[in-house]
Amino acid sequence: MAKKILIAQGVLIGAAVLGILVREYPGLVREIRMWRMARLRD
């Protein structure tokens, strides 16, 4: 029983993290691109 609860919690946390990543993805890509450009200039 406890194992099932742990698995369910893991799935929920995984889904939440995935949802946040999907929602924030365009902003993250823009940030990484800007950071790489800034680094190239040095």
List keywords for this structure.
1 helix, 95% helix, 42 residues, mainly alpha, rod-shaped
How would you portray this structure in words?
Keywords: Membrane, Transmembrane, Transmembrane helix. The chain crosses the membrane at residues 6-26. The protein has 42 residues and is an all-alpha fold. It has one domain. It is 95% helix and 0% strand. The protein is built from one helix and no strands. The protein has one helix at 2-41. The longest helix has 40 residues, at 2-41. It is rod-shaped, with a radius of gyration of 17 Å. The protein starts with a helix and ends with a helix. The mean pLDDT is 93.
Structure at a glance:
The protein is an all-alpha fold.
What's the helix and strand layout?
Layout: H1 2-41
Distance between the termini: 56 Å
Number of helices: 1
Number of domains as seen in the coordinates: 1
- Cα-based radius of gyration, to the nearest Å: 17 Å
- Give the overall shape, derived from the CA principal axes: rod-shaped
